[in-house]
């Protein structure tokens, strides 16, 4: 696949499509797509911290990232859990969890905290195993669901 630019027809099509999507989002009280695109944050470069990093300015994490940025701008330091959430989205580590499971390894460092977002709690140092948190609406299980839990255990 070549890296040629979009043709004029493609540009017009995409502009119309995105305009229509933005109109629908506006009618539903949502922000525009432009507000949810990643941008290069040069704040780290400006403060002597090296190159910029890719951040998402929109979406559900935007308010948390902005709060962290204000906290850091005030000269305060983030705790280890906040640093871990800032470096990796906990819901995006599923593939890493699968690889660790294939290798028979357990999470280390900040991955222990991030794995909890998937309902798995690494219970070291008591034992090298996981505890699984499950949500049972109303505390009720059907027999086939209970058999599934038993197979996993």
Question: How would you portray this structure in words?
Answer:
This protein is mainly α. Among the domains are: about 55-85; about 90-153, no CATH class. The chain is built from seven helices and four strands; from the N terminus they run H-E-H-E-H-H-H-H-E-E-H. It has helices at about 10-25, 45, 60-75, 80-85, 95-105, 110-115, 145-150, and strands spanning about 40, 55, 120, 130. The chain has a two-stranded antiparallel ribbon. The chain has a two-stranded antiparallel ribbon with strand order 3-4. About 0% of the residues are buried. Mean pLDDT is about 80; it is low at about 40-50.
What gross morphology would you assign?
extended
**How many DSSP E strands?**
4
Radius of gyration: 22 Å
Compressed to H and E, one letter per element, the order equals HEHEHHHHEEH
Average pLDDT number: 81
Largest sheet: 2 strands, antiparallel
Instruction: Count up the helices.
Output: 7
Distance between the termini: 47 Å
Q: In percent terms, what proportion of residues is strand?
A: 5-15%
Structural class: mainly alpha
Order of strands side by side in the largest beta sheet? 1-2
Helix content: 40-55%
Poorly predicted regions: 39-51
